[in-house]
Design brief:
Layout (H helix, E strand, L loop, with lengths): L1 H26 L6 E2 L5 H4 L7 H14 L16 H7 L3 E2 L11
Parallel strand pairs: 1-2
Amino acid sequence: MRKNLLILFSLMFMTFIAAAAFAADAANPEANKLNVNTASAEELAKVPGITPEIAKAIVAYREEMGDIQNLDELTEVKGISKELLGKLKEFISTDAIAGSECTC
């Protein structure tokens, strides 16, 4: 009986933890998106619509211009049209890193 209660308590606790994690993700949809300011070219190339060439161009743009401040700025990257950007917004985010503004 005691063992059954312990198992039941453990299952209830794990359910509570899972529900809390799900609620946190639902409250912050950006949490599951790839940050274009920290992602490598390899990570970016895994995003639907981003080819390896576009991924390298994003990283090169970021290295030259500093962190991308908003997603619309990505249309400055060769190969990213407004149409493609609209599709990418589901998968990517921009969390600029403090102090990484353009130094050009």
